[in-house]
Amino acid sequence: MTNLSDLFPAGAGKQVSFTADGAISAAGKPVVLNSAGTISPITSSNSSAGTPVSFGSVGTPDYVNVVYDTNTNKVVVVWMDYGNSQYGTAAVGTVTGTSLSWGDPQVFNSGETTSIAATFDSNANKVVVAYRDGSASNYGKAIVGTVDGSANTISFGTEANFNAASTTNIGIGFDSTANKAVIAFRDDGNSDYGTAVVGTVSGTGISFGSETAFQTNQTSSHNLVHDPDENKMILVYKHDGNSSYGTASVGTVSGTGISFGTAAVFKTANTNSATVAYDTTANKAVVPYSISGAGKAVVGTVSGTGITFGAEAEFYSGGTSNLACAYNSTGNKTVVSYTEASTTFDGFAVAGTISGTSISFGTALNFTGDVTYSSSGQNTIYDPDADKFVSAYRGAGSVVYFVDSSNLTATNFIGISDAAISDDASGNVTIKGGIASSGLSSLTPASDYYVQNDGTITTASAGKKIGKALSATSINLEYQS
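and the corresponding structure tokens:
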């Protein structure tokens, strides 16, 4: 069952008896439906982090990237291993609670490997790694990795050139509509133009179409994310040829090629560490970046082949570097990780919530101490199976944490309690499609109401919409909301 409509057809009875898994404290409390058919109160947890662990056997990692393999439910980290001749290296990790264990490192390129980026191809169930190969004239190359979940290992196929010239500032993303990998890079062999290319995975190999310049001058710091609602790739970068402004371009994949619309500036200043995540609930992109040291973010909305941005929000007023971000599909939050670059150089993470075309941030979590500078920054992914985040970085290595965790999802709200229900006891709930009128007060008639991640019911649209107030003490629980 993926939607509540599978359980209750339109017009079903308003009150249904459920067994509580966790005590419901009073009437008027919103509850969620569990997979076992029980209900629970909506709760949120304080942010916390596990103990950092190293993913490298020797040396110091750099150019660290991390991806999540949804096929094997494993974390994959790739890096340049200073302790092993600067070879390109990978390892497979398993999240258990707030602990992380790593398998043995596996070399994917026996040469100086820099500007590393990685993504997961959910169609082929493969990890795609793109990199600059210093042992082969600094060409841009890519290789396909297959994770063995039971053995905690990864094996690689044969590398392929995506740019037969000196290549830097590599970014990569996966278009899950076209089932293609998209690589963006600075083509040093073509006047430093910002360039993109589309890759197709077949078996353990990858092939590429023709290159497309998205800017006919210099760009850097490329990051990509797929917009599944508009079927577009969102590319953010530093436009060095335009005063180093923070810029975004929208790409459309067709076959083995990609085309771009008109570029949009999201910050008219020297912009560093820009990254991007996509909020599949709000259908918006979140673009965090560092400006004059401070951490900022904007919300982007794709329309056609263009993108527009809302007002800038600040998540940290001091110095920031090594920005990364990931979207939590359970809690409907985008988490931004960063290094505090003014005094402590600790690793922090903060959750942002979209409302309209703006974003607001909560309290930051200090998840590790002294995150040493990394050439490609620390990287962060969301593990949907563990409902945790993983950040990998140069220094301590890697850490598991959660920020603003909640058991409320986009689909599991079931209704509002008619009375208090003890743990393991049964009690009535007014379900979606009914009118809840027990335990509610001080509502504004005709206003839309939303349940928040902490279980409160307010008019703040950042939460999950549950219905419209009919009076000061009743809500019409909309069946399709």
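(Above: one complete record from the training split.) The two ends are 17 Å apart (CA to CA).
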